Amino acid sequence: MKILTILGSPRKKGNTATVLALFEKRIGADHDIERINILNKAVKGCLGCDSCQKVDDQPACVQKDDFMGIFDKIITADLIVYASPVYVWDFSAQLKALIDRHYCLVKWKNRDNNTNYLLEGKRTALLSTCGGSAEKNADLIKEIFSREMNYLHCQIVGKYIVPFCTIPEELGEKARKTTHMMHTDIMNSFIV
Ligand SMILES: Cc1cc2nc3c(=O)[nH]c(=O)nc-3n(C[C@H](O)[C@H](O)[C@H](O)COP(=O)(O)O)c2cc1C
Asked: What pTM did the predictor assign?
């Protein structure tokens, strides 16, 4: 199984990176893991030009940044983990730019009600860390993730929030429990 993880935090050794690394260590023993650190990539915001809608079977974008390389990996992965800190109840700006660019993966124009979903059935998961509680705080990032993945016709395996994060050294049991749950859910999602 090919698992692609996307770290959306600008802090490469922060809370999100630490929990994600623990997950990668757990699941990496049995599966291929590849990580993209969004901070190392140039991903501009979507221009809303709809050029991508003129091409039916490829992501296609007029902006020549790191987008294409990332989408090649997204399309060929069996499962994608989107990892982000909660920033103002939402994704980090860096990951939000990439998520907006997912617009090109649903081909809805000129298809006579026959929309083409390039990520149809793809398994995805959300991992998020935040300073506050999960309730009335990280509920929004979970909802945005659900709506986006439903729009893309992806299959959500799980949405995992690590609340009350301070520093990576203090994540302890919270990180272990979360990554254990992620591992179990993901493995179960591949059992038919
Ligand atoms: C710009 C900014 C906005 C934030 N907004 C929220 C928020 O809305 N809710 C929350 O609980 N924590 C918020 N936090 C705290 C982070 O979500 C938290 O510290 C997180 O674990 C940081 O992850 P990282 O170390 O991977 O960057 C915010 C932090 C920053 C820097």
From this structure: 0.97
